[in-house]
TrEMBL record:
It comes from Microbacterium keratanolyticum. Belongs to the group II decarboxylase family. One of its GO terms (molecular function) is transaminase activity. This is Aspartate aminotransferase family protein. Its cofactor is pyridoxal 5'-phosphate. Pfam families: Pyridoxal_deC (PF00282). Gene3D superfamilies: Aspartate Aminotransferase, domain 1, Type I PLP-dependent aspartate aminotransferase-like (Major domain). Keywords: Aminotransferase, Decarboxylase, Lyase, Pyridoxal phosphate, Transferase. The modification N6-(pyridoxal phosphate)lysine is found at residue 296. GO terms for biological process: carboxylic acid metabolic process.
C-alpha cells in the first residue's frame, strides 16, 4: 500500500485506536487470568516473522499488534499481582506518560526542554520533602532502581577515589587504588550488577540476621580489616522480609571509616514518607546517596527510577558531559548530569503528576494501604492449614512456606495455573518460599481477602 502523508488526522485515528484498546485492556485487567498464555515464539509466529516489503496502514498495524500480542500480556496491573516487586499504574500517571510520548521532549537539556525539566525538578524537590531527606540533595530520573544505584555508585566511586588523590574521570580505573565495595549478605542482586558496571567487582559480603538486616558489628570488622577507599551499601526493604538495616548504627560505623554510604530503597524508601512507618528508616538521612523506584510503590507506569545524591557536584561530575553543540544551562544542573543518559524521555513527569494528584496525604494513604494489605494477607495466610509465614511483617513483603519445598513450589505453580493470584517462588532462609509483594495501589482490604480466599481454594486443590 502507499502510506498516507502524516497529518493531524492520522495522529487522531492512530491515537483513538490506541485509546480504545488501552481502555479495553484496563477494563479487563482485574478479572482476566493474570499469567500470559502464550510463549514469545508463539507471539512471534502470530505477529509474522518476515519484515514486510511494503508498508501497512497504521490502523491495521495497531489492530494486528493488539490482537496478536494480547495472549502474551501479563496482567501486571491486577490488584492481586504479587510477583517480584512491581507496581501498577495510577490513571493520572498513565495519562501523563502518554503526554510525555506525545510531547516527545528529549529531556536532557534544561534550557531546551524547560517544561519537562521544571516538572522533574519539582517532583525531585517534593520527593525529598516527602521522604525527609536534605533539600540540597540532587535527584535524577533513571530507567529503574538498577540505574539509580549505578548513578549513585558512580558518584560514590569517583568521590572515594578522589579523596585518596585518584581522578577516575581523567585516569580511569587501571592502576587505581582498590575500592572496597561492602554490602550485606541479603543485598538485592542488582546492587552487584551496578557495581559490576562500574568496575567495583564483587562486594565484600557482611553477614545478615534472620530477617536479612546487615550485622553492624560484622560490618565494623570488615571495615577495620582493610584500608583505603570504601563504599558501604545498605538496604531499606529486603525483597523477602521487607526488613530495614539499622541505618543509624551502620552509617556511624561506615562514616567513621570514611566510607560512602548508599541505601538501596527500591520500594522500601517510601516508608519514610509515612508517619506510622517512618521509624523503619530511622537514621537513613545520614547516608550519602539513596536509590528508589517510582514504578514500584508510587505506581507510575514503567519505567522510572530515582537516584538521590547528597552532594550534587559529585553526581554532576560522575554523570555529566559537555559538548560545544549542546546548549548547557546557565542556571542549575542539566538533567543529563543526574542520570546516565544524555537523550531520554521525560520520565519524571508522571511522577510529578502522581505527587500532584495525591498530595502528601494521598501518598501517605497509598503507602499505609500497601503495608496494611500485606499485614492482612499475612494474617489470613497464617490461618490456612500448613501455611507458615516466615518473615516479620514490617512493610509490604510476605513470605510463606508449606511443609516441604516441593509443596511450596506446587502451591505457586497451582496459583499460576489458576490465574486469580500471582505470587512467585524464591529461596529464602534455606527454604523454598512463595513471596507476596504488595505493590499495587489498588490492593486494598477486599482484594487482600480475595487473595487469601483464592490461596485457600488453590491449596485445597493440591492437597
Ligand atoms: C530492593 C530492590 N533493589 C533494586 C531493585 C531493582 O529495581 P529495578 O528493577 O527497577 O531496576 C529491586 C527490584 O525489585 C528491588 O526490590
Amino acid at each position: 500500500m502507499v502510506r498516507e502523508e502524516p497529518n493531524a488526522d492520522i495522529y487522531e485515528r492512530a491515537l483513538a485506536l490506541a485509546h480504545r484498546h488501552a481502555l479495553a485492556w484496563l477494563a479487563g485487567v482485574d478479572e482476566r487470568p493474570i499469567p500470559p498464555h502464550a510463549s514469545p515464539d508463539d507471539i512471534k509466529n502470530r505477529l509474522g516473522r518476515e519484515l514486510p516489503v511494503q508498508g501497512t496502514a497504521d490502523a491495521a498495524v495497531l489492530e494486528h499488534l493488539v490482537e496478536n500480542v494480547e495472549p502474551g500480556l501479563i496482567a501486571i496491573g491486577s490488584p492481586r499481582f504479587y510477583g517480584w516487586v512491581i507496581g501498577g499504574t495510577q490513571p493520572v500517571a498513565l495519562a501523563a506518560d502518554w503526554l510525555v510520548s506525545a510531547w516527545d521532549q528529549n529531556a536532557g537539556l534544561r534550557a531546551i526542554t524547560p517544561g519537562a525539566a521544571a516538572a522533574e525538578e519539582l517532583a525531585g524537590e517534593w520527593l525529598l520533602d516527602l521522604l525527609g531527606l536534605p533539600a540540597e540533595c540532587e535527584v535524577g530520573f533513571t530507567t529503574g532502581a538498577t540505574m539509580a544505584q549505578f548513578s549513585c555508585l558512580a558518584a560514590a566511586r569517583n568521590e572515594v577515589l578522589a579523596a585518596v588523590g585518584w581522578d577516575v574521570e581523567v585516569d580511569g580505573l587501571s592502576g587505581a587504588p582498590r575500592v572496597r565495595y561492602i554490602a550485606g549478605e541479603e543485598r538485592h542482586a542488582t546492587m552487584d550488577l551496578a557495581a559490576r558496571y562500574l568496575g567495583l567487582g564483587r562486594p565484600l559480603v557482611v553477614p545478615a540476621d534472620g530477617q536479612g538486616r546487615i550485622d553492624v558489628n560484622a560490618l565494623r570488622h570488615v571495615l577495620d580489616a582493610g584500608e583505603g577507599p570504601a563504599i558501604v551499601a545498605l538496604q531499606a526493604g529486603n525483597i523477602h522480609s521487607g526488613a530495614y538495616d539499622d541505618f543509624a548504627a551502620a552509617i556511624a560505623v561506615a562514616h567513621a571509616a570514611s566510607a560512602w554510604v548508599h541505601i538501596d530503597g527500591a520500594f522500601g524508601l517510601w516508608a519514610a514518607a509515612s508517619p506510622s512507618l517512618r521509624h523503619l528508616t530511622a537514621g537513613f538521612e545520614g547516608a550519602d546517596s539513596w536509590s528508589t523506584d517510582a514504578h514500584k510503590t508510587l505506581n507510575v507506569p514503567y519505567d522510572c527510577g530515582i537516584a538521590i545524591v547528597r552532594d550534587p557536584a559529585a553526581m554532576h561530575r560522575a554523570l555529566g558531559m559537555h559538548a560545544s553543540y549542546l546548549q548547557a544551562t546557565m542556571v542549575g544542573a542539566d538533567p543529563h548530569e543526574k542520570a546516565p543518559e544524555l537523550s531520554r524521555r521525560a520520565r519524571g513527569v508522571p511522577t510529578w503528576a502522581v505527587l500532584r494528584a495525591l498530595g502528601r496525604e494521598g501518598v501517605i494513604a497509598l503507602i499505609d494501604r500497601l503495608a496494611a494489605s500485606a499485614g492482612m494477607i499475612a494474617e489470613g495466610l497464617a490461618e490456612l492449614p500448613g501455611v507458615e509465614v516466615l518473615n516479620e511483617i514490617v512493610f509490604t513483603q510476605v513470605c510463606v512456606a508449606l511443609e516441604s519445598d516441593e509443596a511450596t513450589a506446587r502451591l505457586s505453580a497451582a496459583l499460576w495455573e489458576d490465574g486469580e493470584v500471582l505470587a512467585m517462588t524464591s529461596q529464602w532462609a534455606g527454604r523454598t518460599v512463595v513471596r507476596f509483594s504488595v505493590s499495587n495501589w489498588r490492593t486494598d482490604a477486599p482484594q487482600a481477602q480475595r487473595t487469601v480466599d483464592a490461596v485457600r481454594r488453590t491449596l485445597a486443590s493440591i492437597r
